[in-house]
Amino acid sequence: MRATVVLMKSLSAWFIALSVLSQNILLSETAHLKIGVPENYDGIFPWYLTKLPDLPLTYSDLTVSGDDEGIFGVESGFLYALKPLDREKQPSYSLQVSFTKSMHTQSFTVEVCVIDKNDNVPVFLEESMRGSVQLRLLKGIPFMQVEALDRDDRNTAHADLRFSLLDQIPRIPASHMFSIDSITGEVSLTEDGASTLDPEMCGRYKLSVMVQDMAGKANAFFSTGTVLVEVTGNAWASPDPVRLQENLPGPYPIPISQVKWSGSPVEYSLEGEFPEMLFTINREGIIYLNAPLDRETQDQFHIDIVVERPDGREIAKPVELRVMVGDANDNRPTFPQMQYHTVVKELATKGTEILTVQAADNDDPKTDNVRIFYRLVGQMPETPRNLFRVDRDSGVITVQADSMEGTAPQYTLTITAEDAKGLNSSCTVIVKVLDENNNPPIFSHHEYGPFHLAEDSSVGTTVTVVSAWDADEWGGDSWQVDYRLESGNEEEVFTLVTDRQTNEAALILDKVLDFERENEYILVLSAQNPVALVRGRYGPASTATVTIFIDDINEGPVLSQSHYEVTVREGEEPGRVIATIRGYDPDSHPIRYSLRGDTKKYFSIGKYSGELKTVQALDREENSTYTMEVVAEDGRNSSLSASTLVTVHILDVNDNSPVLVGDYSWKYLCTPRWEDQALVLASRDSDGPQHGGRLNFSLRSDATVRRNWKLTPINDTHTNLSLNVPYLPPEVYIVPFTISDSSSPPRSTFINLPVTVCPCNVRGTVEQHQNSFRACPLFSQQWASCSELWEL
């Protein structure tokens, strides 16, 4: 009975905890049952933790083992605890539950994990912490670390610690010289601390620090501590510049400088513009040169020395080592090009500068290693000697001879450049002796001819070839000759054509000759160079005379015009002179004229006068233009002739009246009047547009006619005839009208035109019955016409 009461009291407490415990029960393969139990339980005991699963309906001897302190027990299928659990003392328990079924003992494991509560205050590992900070340390680089411990579960926020800096004493030279990493507890300098830290101003600082659990939340536990920081000096500074001679013999590597970081262990490295592994640094900060230097490649080096923590984080600003490379005379002077080309005029005087050669030496320009001396060591061809010289210091090449006349056209000079050590190189200079125009051209003959030319010689005939010799360089401008006709060719009958390859000139006939006008030519020629003479002048030897006689040839007649245009009014009386063909014979022979192509014999021409006449009256309407050929023959030699075309235009005269064109007997007009119906009347005038032009239709001046009918022009030759009243009785009407041309005075034709008027329905077609014409017995013929229209 007592056991039952205790059981009932325990069940109430068990149900309170069940909601918590049920969330932490876990079955696994390794532990048959796994539950989580919060530490520091302060409720009623026994504390029922969980109902044991998988128990049979009937069992006996239920026991629990694995608990040396007697904390756990089992009763009525439940696991219970008799006192609170402490995770910091023991975080978990492994219990063995046993029972008997059917005379057989069975068991399974229950693992109890104690769930942490935040019941521990974090504390610093050291009550008083010390550290030192070196000068020149960069901001954010840790120089020490504070550590704290919280006995709560590291995997929960209960042991998630946060560090903070509460105070700094003294607050000089800035109030915030230090910072602490809230997670790691690493202490480092701020921007102000890194830039203003000075051991002479303040060599020791006292920092108040705090550590909190729960990631620093408001309900966190905390504790405080003190950090003493000593400010120490540092040997970290740029080393003195180093001067190294280029091409040092070694052995390598050669130590050249050293740096040192005071304080914590560090690693060094080098950065800068230099070949890889040319400079290296070891753990002690000793800097080595590993290969010879070449000043001409690089005359100085700026090497940045980097100091880092072992984790690769840079802790201070790099310092610089400057290495200067001293020069050794190890470079020969060289010319920028191996060959030069220049010219010198043949009349150049002694001392004339023709070229300056300059060699360069890559040694140090601040030393005598770059002083260069020049020498002329060769000349081809070798003679005459002493034509040129080169200045020893400047490299200026000048003419050494008094004159270059008569020398070779080209010379090749060899120039050397040498430094004080004897290192040298050479180049070649090709000097072309430039010809100058110091010789005038001279004709091979003073007189040419006399030459005979037939009067009928064709244009382009070569009369003769002349030549002038020039002593200057063959093929050059000074050797070329320009020939001119100075006199005797005022009418430009002749021209000169020069062959630039041979310097000869051909005298060419450029116009037709006329013996009767000029039978003799005396031409004066001159020969000059296209460039100015620099010495001497052109004299009589540079001129020549050519004499030419013209031989007479019988020539045919010449007509004054190649084409005649003549106008004649049509209908003029025949026999009138309409044109006179003019011609002359260069030999004053008589000329006979004749016509060719006048097949209808409308024209005649005077045999000796050249007067062109009409033989009969001409009609423009028959032919408005006549074209014929007039032939002029030499009166003594009929094989010599000339011809010209004559075109005769016949001028129009208003000699034709306009006429009506077309058959209108089969056409009709409707009555009652049908809108837009009309007879289109056509007319024609055989005269030209000047007289024909626009043809005018007009009704006779009769009131009845003008009342019944209307003429409406369409264009220059057509007009519309239509009813002018709504209705006319059906019959054939005679409509009188006149057609006039546009001439002044006009010519007219009077017309009486029969016009049939037929009865029509509203559609404009002729009505198909004869009654409409019974009142018009005279219109039987028109009735037949209208009947045909009905059928249509």
UniProtKB/TrEMBL annotation:
Its main location: membrane. It is found in: Cell membrane. Residues 57-124, 126-241, 262-335, 336-443, 453-559, 560-660, 681-779 form the Cadherin domain. Transmembrane segments: none annotated. It comes from the Eukaryota. One of its GO terms (biological process) is cell-cell adhesion mediated by cadherin. GO terms for molecular function: beta-catenin binding; cadherin binding; calcium ion binding. Gene3D superfamilies: Cadherins (2.60.40.60). Residues 1-22 form the signal peptide. Keywords: Calcium, Cell adhesion, Cell membrane, Glycoprotein, Membrane, Metal-binding, Repeat, Signal, Transmembrane, Transmembrane helix. It holds the Pfam family Cadherin. The keyword Ribonucleoprotein does not apply. It is a single-pass type I membrane protein. One of its GO terms (cellular component) is catenin complex. This is Cadherin domain-containing protein. It comes from Onychostoma macrolepis.
